[in-house]
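hey can u check if this looks right to u? its 157 residues, i copy pasted from the old doc so theres a chance i mangled smth
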Amino acid sequence: MNLQRIAIVSTLVLGSIVVTEAAQAQGSSGAKTLTASEIKWGDNPALPKGIKTALLMGNPKEGAFVTRVQLPANAKIMPHSHPTENVVTVLSGTLLYAEGDKFDAGKLKSYPAGSFIVETPNSPHFMTAKGAVVFQVSVPGKSSFDYVNAKDDPRKK
């Protein structure tokens, strides 16, 4: 098996573990289901105004969770990191994403719908939206949102 296949299989296994652990953490004895119209979107104080999030399952302060993020066109999320490995799947639109501790438009790479990103723990990254974007983030444990520069953190304004 080549390294690319090993990476894909490992990522799929990690994703299923995240979902299984999150369901167990909720004490769910049956399927957790949501239709698109049942998803509750809201503001997240850690993100710039206009960006909406929806917690689908779990709790970021307690353990594994899955959340969705809606970025309006041209929305920017400045360099930040998380203490956990986050698995990002682009559901619609095109996400422009790059790693680094300074926002550098020249580093951004396009990730259209269907794309997949695994963010490594404590690795600064930044993003913007080319048109409206929705992506889903699966996180294996308790996490936080840590901006590289405090001046970029909406919670401190």
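Residues 1-27 have pLDDT under 50 and may be disordered.
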